[in-house]
């Protein structure tokens, strides 16, 4: 594929400015160091973070910007000190590629909360270079931030686990949302929400999807296996659910009220937020009167990520995906903004750069 920038050893697509429009680009990946793993990228999931940073919505984008942090591929080279991987292994890389490896959080396998953590794209790595993500043909990472994908698990479906999957799995594990027979509400039914439903059913929970879109009812019930579907703007339907849920996972990033959802929790119930609305407004009584907890969460540490991937393989949990080629990415990002995807775009990197 023709390159529009300097020659390099890695083909990619990059955004050049806040328009967010991506086009072909080449750059150089670093050489493999003693603790590194190099992988050929086979698939890369498409996350709303790719929209945010290609369009400079966080006001810190560094162009040219190569997005993508749901990476699945095959190991092509390992450094001399690498013990956990070998050439030919199926592996994944998620939302971060480095951390200090020495702080309290890193020592607790909470690298995602390391103050010196480095994001997979648009981050500043230890050597001062700007990281570039998975909309590219290969990547080199320290082995700590690389994960084994069990044999037989489809690489295309593994990719979304590295962000969408772990983002909902982490708070579900932290707050013991794996107790069979208990009840879970899932707010929003996109890339994250549909994974929360799948995990909830695998844990043996009674799952209710809370959505503003009636059009999602059938798929929530028939495709994803939810037990109940409620239109959150319907006060009568919401009233019927009051004080009935043990847990809620809130995946909605748009602004929305919190009091109506908190009222659905039983005494001692937990609501975990994984999206990023612009603000959270609620009455203290929504927490105090039911001894409820409102909690935040952000992806997961390396131990949790590998555990989650293994759990998905053992329980045959697969994201619902739409596979695309890289030359469709601008249309795909526009569709993602319009919530026109069921439920995760995955780029066929291997066949896009032939």
From TrEMBL:
User: Where does the sequence pass through the membrane?
Assistant: none
What does the record note on quaternary structure? Homodimer.
* Keyword check for Cell cycle: no
Residues forming the Enoyl reductase (ER) domain are 20-347
Recorded superkingdom = Eukaryota
Q: Which GO terms describe its biological process?
A: lignin biosynthetic process
EC top class, in one word? oxidoreductase
- Organism of origin is Sorghum bicolor
Can you say what this protein is called?
A: Probable cinnamyl alcohol dehydrogenase
Alphabetically, the GO molecular function entries are: cinnamyl-alcohol dehydrogenase activity; oxidoreductase activity, acting on the CH-OH group of donors, NAD or NADP as acceptor; zinc ion binding
Keywords of the record: Lignin biosynthesis, Metal-binding, NADP, Oxidoreductase, Zinc
The catalytic activity, as recorded, is:
(E)-cinnamyl alcohol + NADP(+) = (E)-cinnamaldehyde + NADPH + H(+); (E)-4-coumaroyl alcohol + NADP(+) = (E)-4-coumaraldehyde + NADPH + H(+); (E)-sinapyl alcohol + NADP(+) = (E)-sinapaldehyde + NADPH + H(+); (E)-coniferol + NADP(+) = (E)-coniferaldehyde + NADPH + H(+)
């Amino acid at each position: 594929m023709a390159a529009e920038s300097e020659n390099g050893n890695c083909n990619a697509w990059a955004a050049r400015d806040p328009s967010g429009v991506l086009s072909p680009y080449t750059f150089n990946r670093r050489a493999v160091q003693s603790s590194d793993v190099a992988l050929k990228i086979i698939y890369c999931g498409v996350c709303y973070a790719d929209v945010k940073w290609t369009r400079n919505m966080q006001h810190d984008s560094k162009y040219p910007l190569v997005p993508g942090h749901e990476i699945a591929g095959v190991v092509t080279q390992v450094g001399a000190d690498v013990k956990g991987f070998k050439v030919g292994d199926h592996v994944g890389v998620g939302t971060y590629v480095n951390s200090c490896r020495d702080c309290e959080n890193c020592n607790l396998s909470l690298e995602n909360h390391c103050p010196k953590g480095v994001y997979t794209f648009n981050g500043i790595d230890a050597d001062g270079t700007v990281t570039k993500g998975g909309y590219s043909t290969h990547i080199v990472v320290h082995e700590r931030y690389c994960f084994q994908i069990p044999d037989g698990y489809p690489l295309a479906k593994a990719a979304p686990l590295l962000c969408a999957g772990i983002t909902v799995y982490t708070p579900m594990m932290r707050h013991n949302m794996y107790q069979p027979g208990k009840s879970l509400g899932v707010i929003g039914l996109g890339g994250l929400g549909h994974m929360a439903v799948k995990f909830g059913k695998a844990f043996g929970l009674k799952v209710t999807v809370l959505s503003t879109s009636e059009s999602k009812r059938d798929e929530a019930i028939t495709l994803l296996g939810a037990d109940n579907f409620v239109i959150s703007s319907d006060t009568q339907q919401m009233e019927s659910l009051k004080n009935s849920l043990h847990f809620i996972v809130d995946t909605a990033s748009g602004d929305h009220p919190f009091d109506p959802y908190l009222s659905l929790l039983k005494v001692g119930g937990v609501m975990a937020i994984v999206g990023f609305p612009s603000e959270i407004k609620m009455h203290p009584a929504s927490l105090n009167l039911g001894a409820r907890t409102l909690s935040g969460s952000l992806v997961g540490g390396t131990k949790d990520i590998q555990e989650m991937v293994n759990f998905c393989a053992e329980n045959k949990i697969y994201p619902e995906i739409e596979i695309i080629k890289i030359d469709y990415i601008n249309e795909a990002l526009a569709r993602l903004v319009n919530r026109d995807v069921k439920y995760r775009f995955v780029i066929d990197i291997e066949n896009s750069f032939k």
